[in-house]
Amino acid sequence: MRKLLLLLFLCLSAVAWSQDSAVAKKDTPWALYHSIEARLDTVYGDDQSGRQMIETIQKKYGMRSRQMDSLYKAMGKKDSINRIKVKGILGQYGWLGINEIGEKANLAIFLVIQHSDSLTQVTYLPVMRQAVKDKKARAADLALLEDRVLCMQGKPQLYGSQVRVLKTGKYALFPIQDEPNVDRRRAEVGLEPLEAYARYFGIDYHLPK
pTM to 2 decimals? Predict the structure, then answer.
């Protein structure tokens, strides 16, 4: 009888341990979230530091200058390191929301994917779509990734977010599918009208009728 009770106790303990482990995996300790947030805040800074210098160096030395080449090489090196870090976090914890790691760290995940190679973008596009459904990523950011992937595949973009540099040094929008309705799609994901967005790049854009 004692052996039977002991066996029953061990079985119940094993079940309880299994359930506790599942809860522990689901409810990641806040200390760990803070640690991840700190790592991603650094990733954010590394991602943006070089990109914030692009306009200044372009105006001073030109788009096809040696200085611009050096900047892009440095950015590419940091992007490669950031990609490894973010892939590791996504693989272990999934796409973490603002309520878990803060706005800047959450944005860093998107930025690293957006600035990655096309294979990485395509791989994580469905992951980000699900994150938006789960309210762990912004629909406006997803729209930019959707456009980036379409443009990389040689297809017209949906939201008009992607621009290219002409030989003249001026910017132009990549082709847009169903262009008369682009502002409706932009509004649905929380983006401003395309005419206002285009002005940031010095593009005089008017919605076709």
Answer: 0.83
List phi, psi (to 5°) of 172: -145, 150
In this structure, which amino acid lies at residue 56?
Answer: T
Structure tokens at 42: 């650094």
Spans of the chain below 70 pLDDT: 1-28
pLDDT at 159: 98
In the chain, where the domains are located: 29-137, 156-209
CA distances from 6 to 13, 51, 61, 69, 134 (A): 10, 64, 79, 71, 44
> Residue 163, SS3?
strand
Q: Which long-range contacts (CB under 8 A, 24 or more apart) does 125-131 make?
A: 125/149, 127/90, 127/95, 128/95, 130/95, 131/94, 131/95, 131/97
